[in-house]
Design a protein that fits this description.
This protein has 333 residues and is α/β, with parallel strands linked by helices. The protein folds into 2 domains: 204 residues, Vaccinia Virus protein VP39 (Rossmann fold, 3-Layer(aba) Sandwich), CATH 3.40.50.150; 82 residues, Putative methyltransferase TM0872, insert domain (DNA polymerase, domain 1), CATH 1.10.150.170. 38% of the residues lie in helices and 13% in strands. The chain has 13 helices and 7 strands. The protein has a 7-stranded mixed β-sheet with strand order 3-2-1-4-5-7-6, with helices on both faces. The longest helix has 15 residues.
Length: 333
């Protein structure tokens, strides 16, 4: 869900610019009286566009408590048509069932972290701004500081390598453990400086702290596990003909979505080391039909005005009439 802010003075509200917005709205094939899910509400960019495009209803979900206020404001613009639910999109089936919603016409998921979260130094997502080393989307549970100050060197190296694809993961983990022995980590810039002392800037100019910060954020928020649960949830609640549109921003997310949709279309593939085994099993009958052979990417025009859109990939698929025959993680049917 990485969307770029426009320049703004300190303390000003960051303008939210959804990525691949036109493509997402087109893919959902919106219809009057339809029911749609925006599983990653953020600042409501997709939700507003859906509600503006058709006389339909949207159920918006977000785990970030700060999204609650934004959802309440937007509800006033769309009386009776927007419903906001605080929670994780991986629990969408249960969250909607609690409101007597059993089936929907389309689901949009915009993965990752938003510009508002990155730009807010108090949230601790950015390695460019000093702030508390937090990274919790829900503002509860174990923080990034807890992780880097308590896990073993081996555990840290595994996290940094698996979720950040950092080839210098062992070196970074060793430096973190050494530095915390002198003083526990509590601020983002100190961690970033420790990483930069160990990893050279790449030829493409990517900050050496990028991959480690990504890894910690994914781990702290269980983002890949959440994505797996969300894909299974979408399979459960989409009506036949309903569309799933997923926008991802890095290869780990895209790989999970690709693996799931290939398996669910009857073309099971061998999962990578990053992909939960449950995603690789094909159902007895295809539950999804991919609507594009390759991921949809932003246009040159969009990326020119929106640098963070460059890595975006969207995969779309249509729910078939096949019944749900496979079990979900944890034994749920």
């Amino acid at each position: 869900m990485s969307k770029p802010p426009r320049s703004a003075p300190p303390g000003a509200e960051i303008e939210h610019i959804p990525v691949l917005l036109t493509e997402v709205i087109s893919a959902l094939a919106l219809k009057a009286e339809g029911v749609y899910v925006d599983g990653t509400f953020g600042a409501g960019g997709y939700t507003g566009a859906i509600l503006d495009a058709a006389s339909c209803t949207v159920w918006a979900i977000d785990r970030d408590p700060e999204a609650l206020a934004r959802g309440d404001v937007m509800k006033e613009r769309y009386p009776g048509r927007l419903n906001f639910v605080h929670g994780r999109f991986g629990d969408m089936a249960e969250l909607l069932a609690a409101h007597n919603v059993g089936a929907v016409d389309g689901i949009a998921l915009d993965l990752g972290v938003s510009s508002m979260q990155i730009e807010d130094r108090a949230r601790g997502f950015s390695f460019l701004r000093d702030g508390p080393l937090d990274m919790r989307m829900e503002k509860s549970g174990r923080s990034a500081a807890d992780v880097v100050n308590t896990l073993s060197e081996k555990e840290l190296a595994n996290i940094i390598f698996t979720y950040g694809e950092e080839r210098h993961a062992r070196r970074v983990a060793r430096a973190i453990v050494s530095a915390r022995a002198e003083r526990p980590f509590s601020r983002t810039l100190r961690l970033a400086d420790v990483i930069r002392a160990e990893v050279r800037r790449s030829h493409d100019g990517i900050d050496p702290a990028t991959r480690t910060f990504q890894a910690l954020r994914i781990y702290v928020n269980d983002e890949l596990g959440e994505l797996e649960r969300g894909l299974h949830g979408a399979e459960r609640i989409l009506k036949p003909g309903g569309v799933l549109a997923v926008v991802s921003f890095h290869s780990l997310e895209d790989r999970v979505v690709k693996t799931f949709l290939k398996a669910r279309s009857g073309a099971a593939i061998r999962p990578s080391r990053h992909t939960p085994a449950s995603l690789g099993a094909a159902p007895s009958a295809a539950t999804f039909t991919p609507l594009s052979r390759r991921p949809i990417t932003p246009s040159e025009r969009e990326t020119a005005g929106n640098p963070r859109a460059r890595s975006a990939r969207m995969r779309i698929a249509e729910r078939t009439t096949a019944p749900l025959l496979t079990s979900l993680p944890g034994g749920r049917a």
